[in-house]
Amino acid sequence: MTDPVLSVRDLTVAVDTQAGPKPLVSDLSFALHRGETLCIAGESGSGKSITSLAVMGLLPTGVNVASGAITLDGQELTKLPERRMRDIRGARIAMIFQEPMTSLNPVLTIGTQLAEAIRTHDPKADAKKQALDALRAVRLSQPERRMGQYPHELSGGMRQRVMIAMALALKPDVLIADEPTTALDVTVQREVLDLLRDLQRDTGTAIILITHDMGVVAEMADRVIVMQSGRMVETAPVAQIFDTPAQPYTRALLAAVPRMGDGGGAAPITADPIAQLQDVQVSYDIHGGLLGRTTHRVHAVEHVSFDILAGETFSLVGESGCGKSTIARAITGLVPHEGQITVAGHSVPHDGLSAGPGLRRDVQMVFQDPAAALNPRKKVGELVAEPLVIHRIGTASERRAHVRDLFNRVGLSADQIDRYPHEFSGGQRQRICIARALALQPKLIIADESVSALDVSVQARVLELLAELKAEFGISYLFISHDMAVVENISDRIAVMYLGQIVEMGTRAQIFGNPQHPYTRRLIESVPVPDPAFIRAPSPRMATEVPSPVWAVGSGPARVVLTDAGGGHLVAEAAATDDAAVS
Amino acid sequence: MAAYLIRRLIQSALILLGVSVITFLLLYILPADPVRQIAGRSATPEVVENIRRQLGLDQPVWVQYGNYLWGLLHGDMGRSYLQRSEVASLIAARLPATLQLMLGAIIAELVIGLTLGVVAALNRGKPLDTSLMVASFAAVSAPQFVVALLLLYVFAVKLGWFPIGGYGTFSHLVLPSITMGIMGAGWYSRMMRSSMLDVLRADYIRTARAKGLGRMRVILRHALPNAILPVIAMIGMDIGIFMGGVVVVESVFGWPGIGQLAWQAIQRVDIPIIMGVTITSAVAIVLGNLLADLITPFIDPRIKLR
């Protein structure tokens, strides 16, 4: 076997604290060979990102390599002075980051940022031409035009392509990709993963792929390192990790991964609807011109109709900007809408302002980011009691008792009610949000990407809790998610949204067992499968962009017509959604 | 862009109209009687009434205002009660000096404030940072006449580097500009420091470093243009603050600008001059803010004016 291009030996990275250095990564060793993809998998706090920053020499202040060695082609990096390390960064080891939306400088053009990377390491290069070549290599549409554009003019997927172009422009030996597709939609993730694989085949770059997604691991990795709390738990070729995981932690991690096809058939629910949406439309005006008149409209939700039955989990799936969260806001009466929405007997007012206490009591929401959804200056007990206070339910002592019950019910200890949100982990915070949503005994809980920000093992337990609560209290859920595997696991019925309209709707078995609409199929096929033996049918390499939902006043998207494909399985005619909007 | 500009100009005109109404009414209800000032203490009631009639001050307030506005629209700001000269030409003669002073002050506050802010941010938590922030606090809190006298004492009297007062050359401009800009410099150094610290934490700074760029290039090319954005919007407002400052600073340094003119007019209840200076200041403030807003899209491509 040839020498590894990068090797890490007994690496320990520690953060300075008042109580002395605290290790974030301990005794990590691995070797990376040319053309190889090494996946570092683990949940938050496992030290996988710190490892990559250590290799780049970009550790934040206060975090240092305590011991061990990082060697690139025989050259020790940890002791290298910053001046020499700079020559390696970007040229020989390049990195792409998780957040394409914020990883590019907003005030510089794409061309400037690309050319700068090239010129820094090769002052004589024809940087502009090389930059253009790099944009072509990542299959970005209209590369000449992109050069002069600013990051905000590009979508997330396009920006991640630019990041990849920037990283690979100088043909580095090692590419570190830190959760490169986590912030992207599933179809865009598919395109970016395909691209990385193609580019690696062409250039022979060794890739360290850091991810929490075992599906991505199965598709991309040659070898896998599983990390937990800064330590390597297990390392093995990818097939071995999935087939015969040696360590209990690896087994637990794999068991927690939601898989498609696990859902099983549930008895169809027959009950009265708890929520009814009839021809709901939501649009936002864009003003312009001399008098500030409305010139364009964002058609966020178009002619959407569906019922949520009592005791049912109804899921809305679709990619960012498809209008699924807007529907949630319309149902809660937080955004003006047209059409009819009725929830638990309350008609939702159209103005998005005057929803009465009855509606507010019967519909509760659980949001994506529990850290942002809890006021950091209030005790968690107060936060959970707040809905009761607002609706003037019970005395102070009754409320306190009720809050303690709720804490017990969501799997937290009642002793914790006097603590503050920052003292809890992400999963615990989401349980607090669920307790708060339960406080008023709502009939419908809207869970908007409620488990998306959680680690898989935590996610699995929160999903379990949601299922138990549904059985216990007969609550209905409107579950909004981009994660097809999670949706399949918990939903009774599903609506697939694209550009503000429902393109397919049916039971779980209908949608996942017999997807009819091309967009539904593409969504399902794009999901990475956590099985290295799975062979994906070759798909066209594309860089598609979802068309804009912005239309000039007086025009609008063609209305999608749903027809029954049997047993209440509604499918749109495919052609209607292919029209690109003009803005 | 054109539509934006036209809309903003119409808004500006409405603001100026509002300013003129409010100022006019305030001066009208003022207990000091300008006619008494002009006529002097020993004047007979007939003389007083005569002057009042001559100046048109016996008419109802809305007629007075209507006449004033009509004149204003024709570029006529009336005549000074006491000097009998055209207010417009009095202001025109003094405006260049004041504009010079304001420009000097803007440059002083930006150069001092932004530099110190960046230096403080790059030395965060170190003694240099702490001392700079204490200094900026002192700069923000110090009254202008104290700063003026201190600067005069040190740099004009003791060191003799700059003239004690007067107008004409660049060296005359230095101390008044710094006096007027020092408060803004204090604010800007604090704003710039926190803005810079925010930007240095941003993902794109990490990207820039991951490209292998040198420290100076990361700071100057990537951090600075982003950190400066919130500051730009503030410059427009400074002109308003300066308008208050010119009265003090011009008096202390004997600077022949509209601040002095206003000061004398206030003492003598010379209402046409007070009106004229107020309207001129309002125009400067409105235009300054408009200019700051028009510049922003050139620095931040995400901002579109429409």
From TrEMBL, chain A:
It is found in: Cell inner membrane. SUPFAM superfamilies: P-loop containing nucleoside triphosphate hydrolases (SSF52540). Its main location: membrane. Gene3D superfamilies: P-loop containing nucleotide triphosphate hydrolases (3.40.50.300). Residues 6-254, 275-524 form the ABC transporter domain. It comes from the Bacteria. Pfam families: ABC_tran (PF00005), oligo_HPY (PF08352). Keywords: ATP-binding, Cell membrane, Membrane, Nucleotide-binding, Transport. One of its GO terms (biological process) is transmembrane transport. GO terms for cellular component: plasma membrane. It is a peripheral membrane protein. One of its GO terms (molecular function) is ATP binding. The keyword Cell membrane applies. Belongs to the ABC transporter superfamily. This is ABC transporter ATP-binding protein. It comes from Paracoccus aurantiacus.
Automatic annotation (TrEMBL), chain B:
GO terms for cellular component: plasma membrane. Keywords: Cell membrane, Membrane, Transmembrane, Transmembrane helix, Transport. Gene3D superfamilies: MetI-like. This is ABC transporter permease. It is a multi-pass membrane protein. Belongs to the binding-protein-dependent transport system permease family. It is found in: Cell membrane. The chain crosses the membrane at residues 12-30, 99-122, 134-155, 167-188, 227-253, 273-296. It comes from Paracoccus aurantiacus. GO terms for biological process: transmembrane transport. InterPro entries: BPD_transp_1_N, MetI-like, MetI-like_sf. Pfam families: BPD_transp_1, BPD_transp_1_N. Its main location: membrane. PANTHER family: DIPEPTIDE TRANSPORT SYSTEM PERMEASE PROTEIN DPPB-RELATED. Residues 95-296 form the ABC transmembrane type-1 domain. The keyword Transmembrane applies. The keyword Transport applies.
